């Protein structure tokens, strides 16, 4: 593809592979982003290369989001000051989507607040399987064009290539939407466990009657593996019910503290994740799909509504 000087790709640290796919898919120029952290924890941003009248794609997955969000805002604002026409975020992991309602009196709905903020300084957003539950579509809370890259087909392909006679297992009711899609694409049967959460690290999982599947390899599938306690509880329940060692698959590998090591030591055959967040468990590559969705979004974007911000 002939390079397009009107499109520039910048990578936050750790997002270089995604940036390379974006450059290839878009025929874009590769820009350089330098971030400096001062002793007082403030950050300075420097962009190298011309971006005047360009569409700039920022490759930045937003795990551990708080510092990254401030730096993202500073980067987008710097690009505006340098004359960028539009600023688009390619963020494989989109944070704060699980806080989608007020669970206690006086509590804010963080998903809505972050969406309003990002919509104020970006012109487009591409992400992978955000945690949509009580919010059903990103356009319910985002005021900018968005694209969601589904992970179901790549996960199904991995299962077909690596697991004989699978039965897919959702660790809780919220996982049903992902598990059913993947099971359809494999194809194979699936069932969903019943989870009762008493706290962040106190989870009980109950098993439906599934004796007819015990000759199959259980494959646990969930969108986010954070504390790991939901999946760990599901592994324990499967083992107690007579299933063999499960394969554990997550879309987003947050893995707080020692969650990954705990899952590995529980007797799982394998723990595999998509590469939306860099982790040793990454085995399912979504970078090309993200890049192609970014190209499609860019081709359909209207004039830059945030250019004056």
CATH topology of the largest domain: Rossmann fold
By DSSP (H or I, 4+ residues per run), the number of helices equals: 8
Tell me the Rg in angstroms: 21 Å
| Approximate shape | elongated
Helix proportion range = 25-40%
* Annotated CATH architecture of the largest domain: 3-Layer(aba) Sandwich
CATH class of the largest domain: Alpha Beta
The mean pLDDT is: 91
State the end-to-end CA separation. 33 Å
Strand order of the largest sheet: 2-1-5-6-7-8
Structural class call reads: alpha/beta
The low-confidence runs, each spanning 5 or more residues with pLDDT under 50, are none
Count of the separate structural domains = 2
Give the beta-strand count: 16
Amount of beta strand: 25-35%
Instruction: Return the string of H and E elements.
Output: EHEEEEHEHEEHEHEEEEHEHEEH
How does the major sheet shape up? 6 strands, parallel
Fold and architecture overview:
The protein has helices at residues 16-26, 65-81, 110-121, 152-162, 176-185, 229-240, 259-265, 287-299; strands at residues 4-11, 28-30, 32-37, 43-48, 55-59, 86-90, 124-128, 146-149, 166-170, 190-192, 194-199, 202-206, 217-225, 247-253, 270-274, 282-284. The protein is α/β, with parallel strands linked by helices. The chain folds into two domains: 4-150 and 287-299, Rossmann fold; 152-284, 3-Layer(aba) Sandwich (Rossmann fold), CATH 3.40.50.2020. The protein has a six-stranded parallel sheet with strand order 2-1-5-6-7-8, sandwiched between helices. Strands 10-9-13-14-15-16 form a six-stranded parallel sheet, with helices on both faces. A hairpin with a 2-residue loop joins strand 11 and strand 12. Helix 1 packs across helix 8 and helix 4 packs across helix 5 (176-185). The chain is elongated and about 65 Å long.
């Amino acid at each position: 593809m002939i390079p397009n000087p009107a499109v520039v790709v910048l990578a936050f640290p750790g997002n270089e592979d995604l940036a390379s796919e974006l450059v290839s898919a878009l025929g874009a120029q590769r820009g350089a982003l330098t971030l400096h952290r001062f002793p007082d924890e403030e950050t300075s941003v420097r962009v190298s290369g011309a971006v005047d009248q360009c569409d700039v794609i920022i490759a930045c997955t937003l795990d551990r989001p708080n510092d990254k969000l401030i730096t993202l805002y500073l980067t987008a604002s710097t690009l505006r000051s340098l004359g960028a026409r539009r600023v688009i975020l390619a963020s494989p992991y989109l944070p704060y989507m699980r806080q989608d309602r007020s669970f206690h009196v006086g509590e804010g709905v963080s998903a809505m607040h972050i969406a309003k903020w990002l919509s104020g300084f970006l012109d487009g957003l591409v992400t992978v399987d955000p945690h949509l539950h009580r919010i059903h579509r990103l356009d319910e809370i985002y005021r900018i064009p968005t694209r969601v890259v589904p992970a179901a087909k790549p996960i199904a392909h991995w299962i077909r290539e690596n697991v004989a006679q699978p039965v897919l297992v959702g660790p809780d009711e919220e996982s049903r939407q992902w598990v059913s899609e993947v099971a359809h694409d494999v194809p194979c049967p699936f069932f969903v466990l019943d989870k009762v959460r008493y706290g962040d690290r106190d989870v009980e999982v109950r098993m439906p009657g599934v004796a007819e599947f015990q000759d199959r390899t259980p494959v646990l599938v969930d969108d986010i593996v954070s504390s790991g306690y939901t999946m760990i509880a599901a592994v324990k329940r499967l083992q107690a019910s007579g299933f063999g060692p499960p394969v554990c698959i997550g879309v987003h590998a947050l893995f707080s503290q020692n969650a990954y090591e705990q899952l590995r030591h529980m007797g799982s055959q394998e723990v595999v994740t998509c590469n939306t967040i860099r982790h040793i468990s990454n085995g399912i590559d979504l970078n090309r799909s993200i890049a192609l969705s970014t190209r499609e979004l860019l081709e359909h974007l209207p004039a830059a509504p945030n250019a004056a911000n």
